[in-house]
Structure formats: structure tokens, C-alpha cells
Amino acid sequence: MTTEPQTDVTIAVFGATGQTGRHVLSHALNQGHGVRALVRDPSKLRVEQDGLTFITGDFDTIEALHETVRGATHVICCAGGAYGKGYDTGMMTRFVTRLWPILDAEPSVRTFLFQSVFFAPEPDGSNPVILKLLAPVAAYFTGATEMLRDNTAVTKFIAANRDVSFDTIVTRPGKIVDKQGGALLVASRTAGFAPITFADLGAFTVSAVQDASLLGTYPFVAPAP
């Protein structure tokens, strides 16, 4: 990964208390980056460290969205939602659409990374054949049909609205497990079915958002060969 040499990195995180987000938060802080995190309940962060600023609010609080990205150089969204009937239909599409002009108006923002789902296709609908065949079946049996539809819509929105002041990356991690990390992950054009950990995904995401070679791409995330 070709990471930009930066000493002035501040990362805004949406979904900071989630399974990926908490590792993004931890890794970014350990790397010495400033972090701004939007949270509904600050006690869920369970982190007290120099460089961390938390903003209390939710995806519907416009003022909080502005404050979260204020001064950020990179913005990461690794938020998700409940599987099955509990999924808030269209939640990520509504959020990204609401966030878009705020990102465009913030002069410090260089890159926005959206963590999508494994089976989501690229904006033109292209996907490896095996994923096209498995996606509807896997989504149905895991209760992720609405989540897949929502993430697919976000990807299309991002691609259709690239005339903004910042660059974008959409990542598509595969199966993620909550185990101890330590493996190197890479951006891949090939869909990988080997499981990855939330810890390693957090480290990858912090590096990826600073990687100039990934701008404008939709990579899968897989273990290094």
C-alpha cells in the first residue's frame, strides 16, 4: 500500500463504536493521528486518549455531522445496521446523501472511505460471477437483503456524485471474525473468501484512506498473498 507521507492527519469516524469502528479508532490514535468520532453515547467509546474528540449526536443531527468532519483530512464510514427485519431500510443511503454536501463544504477533507459489504457490486453492476450467483441467496439466508440493497445504492450514489472537492474509496471486506488480529490485509480486485478480523480490518482501513492508489476504486479486502 502506497500511503501518503502525512504528519497532519485527522480522521473523522462514523460508526466508531461498532466492531470495525472501534479498531479504526484505536489504530488511528496509536498511529498518532487526530480522531473525531460521532457517537450517540460517549461511554461506549471506552477510550480516553490524547487526540480523540467525540461529538455527541446521530446521523440525523446536521450540526453534529458538520462538527465531526470539521478540520478532518480523511473521513471513514464503517457504520452498519441490524440484520434482518431490524434493518432500517435505506439508512446508509439517507446518511451518505445527507453527509455529501457537508464533506464538500469542508475544505480540509481529502478522502471519504465508505465500508460497504462483500456482495455489493461496483456502480456499473459488475461483480465476479460467483458473487452475482451467491449474493441474493446469501443475503436472503443471513437476513441482509435490505442491507445489500442499501449499500449497493450508496455505491451508485458515490459514483454518480464524484464532482466534489474530495476523493472517494469504497471497500468491500469479506467474512469478518472477532478474533485477535495480526495479519496484513490488502486491497484486491479478486473476491477472497478467507475470513479476516475486525482488528486487522481497522488497521487496513486507516492505511487505505491515506492510500492515493485507491482513490476512486471499489476494492475487496483480503489477506495478503
Give the helix/strand layout.
Blueprint: E1 10-14, H1 21-30, E2 34-39, E3 52-56, H2 62-69, E4 74-77, H3 91-105, E5 111-115, H4 129-142, H5 145-160, E6 167-173, E7 176-177, E8 185-188, E9 196-197, H6 198-208, E10 220-223
Parallel strand pairs: 1-2, 1-4, 2-3, 4-5, 5-6, 6-10, 7-9
Antiparallel strand pairs: 8-10
Keywords:
225 residues, disordered N terminus, single chain, eight-stranded mixed β-sheet, globular, two-stranded parallel sheet, alpha/beta
Question: What does this molecule look like?
Answer:
- The protein has 225 residues and is an alpha/beta fold.
- The protein is 33% helix and 20% strand.
- The chain has six helices and ten strands, in the order E-H-E-E-H-E-H-E-H-H-E-E-E-E-H-E.
- The strands form two sheets. An eight-stranded mixed sheet has the order 3-2-1-4-5-6-10-8, with helices on both faces. Strands 7-9 form a two-stranded parallel sheet.
- Strand 1, helix 1 and strand 2 form a beta-alpha-beta unit.
- Helix 1 packs across helix 6, helix 2 packs across helix 3 and helix 4 packs across helix 5.
- The two termini are 14 Å apart.
- The N terminus is likely disordered.
Oligomer: single chain
Question: What is the rounded Rg?
Answer: 16 Å
- Structural class determined from secondary elements: alpha/beta
Q: Approximately what portion of the residues adopt beta-strand conformation?
A: 15-25%
Q: So what's the overall shape?
A: globular
**N-to-C series of helices and strands:** EHEEHEHEHHEEEEHE
How far apart, in Å, are the first and last alpha carbons? Answer: 14 Å
Given the structure, what is the number of helices? 6
Query: What percentage of residues falls in helices of 4 or more residues?
Result: 25-40%
Largest sheet: 8 strands, mixed
Global mean pLDDT: 92
How do the strands line up in the largest sheet?
A: 3-2-1-4-5-6-10-8
Low-confidence stretches: 1-6
Strand tally is 10
